[in-house]
Amino acid sequence: MTPNWSRNFASVDEIARHLNECGESFATELSARIDIGIYAQKILLNAERFEAWSNGMLVGFLAMYCNDDKLKSAFITNVSVLEDWRGRGIAGTLLEQCITHADEKGFGTIQLEVEAGNMAAVAVYGKFGFVPLGGGQSTLIMKLDLGAKK
């Protein structure tokens, strides 16, 4: 089954529900690191949201902050897909949509932070041209230069 795609449609409750359902898939469970309700509200108010839906359920979600107009750098704060929907290219389609959006808005770079041990996610980001910049003990900062994609 192919999901339906939307942008900036999900409510704060739908975002929080999705994040809670995906939270266990992170190496450190999401709810152990942040208050999901506050995070969902911040995303709703400040991020561009790219969404995959099926039968009224948010099955894939990407949130990107595009508010650094001075440096023209966007930041992906979340990419998540419900477990039953993984392996269907949803994360890749959401990445394509956000990269196109950032490029159309004139942003020069997109950065993200990923758990260093999440090799599957690092590989997906690498396929889209993100390169590692460094990071902490457990995280890796990756960057995509949109100018290099042209």
Automatic annotation (TrEMBL):
Residue ranges of domain N-acetyltransferase in the record: 1-147
Protein name: GNAT family N-acetyltransferase
Pfam families, per database record: Acetyltransf_1 (PF00583)
Lineage: Bacteria, Pseudomonadati, Pseudomonadota, Alphaproteobacteria, Hyphomicrobiales
Keywords for the protein's UniProt record, in alphabetical order: Acyltransferase, Transferase
Single Gene Ontology MF annotation: acyltransferase activity, transferring groups other than amino-acyl groups
Record flagged with keyword Metal-binding: no
Highest taxon above the source species: Bacteria
Organism: Rhizobium leguminosarum
Transmembrane regions: none
UniProt keyword annotation of Transferase present: yes
Family annotation (InterPro entries): Acyl_CoA_acyltransferase, Bact_Acetyltransf, GNAT_dom
PROSITE patterns linked: GNAT
